[in-house]
Amino acid sequence: GGEVAEAPRVVDRGYASLRNVNALVRRKERFLVAVRAKPGSKDLSLLEEVGTWEAWPEIAPGVRGVSVMRMGVKWTVTWNDEVAGRNGDGRRAKMKQARDALERVAKGIEVGRVKSRSERDRKVGSILARYGMKRFLRVEGERNGLGFRVEETGVREKKEGGDDGYQVYATTETWLGEQDVVTFYRHRDRIEKAIRTMSSVLGLGPMWVQTPEHVRGHVFVHALGY
């Protein structure tokens, strides 16, 4: 109802860690946050009982969700087909870019532009970091010479086979259904994104707001300046 939608709560567009959630609980804050860790990670082993997304009820087209109660907090886990596909496509594109860049390094070695192992390792490390492939590609230098081999670590297949598409939310508003949790979070996510966009254009630094009056004033000043 309207009283729920208007209730004060902590809603953060960033991803909260389990430590952040525990701190909010200790301060007796009301909150609705997205959680950084995914099902299966050691930080959220308490969610193992939810099983895999295939058995969950559909809460919206292409979205499935389930919840469990722990530590006085409702933990809602969702699976989104669109997000899973988008994450996989983006990762595969970056992997191709990384492999192409590594191939250019290999050609540089062949023609003598790369002259030492330290230079090779520096270039390889820079490529893996630039495309976020350190977990997905393993690069091993050959024992003799400057050549190297590139292999996939298997993490990509694991993520595309199960991890991609998951999102975890934590909230003290235990009466909310799975779809309500996602909807309320996204509504406030749009507000935060709008403020950050205007802040970036106006060159304003981060500002901490806590009360409804602060939020309204913050939006008004940004909109006026924008």
UniProtKB/TrEMBL annotation:
Pfam families: DDE_Tnp_1 (PF01609). Residues 10-224 form the Transposase IS4-like domain. GO terms for biological process: DNA transposition. Transmembrane segments: none annotated. InterPro entries: RNaseH-like_sf, Transposase_11. GO terms for molecular function: DNA binding; transposase activity. This is ISMHp1 transposase. It comes from mine drainage metagenome.
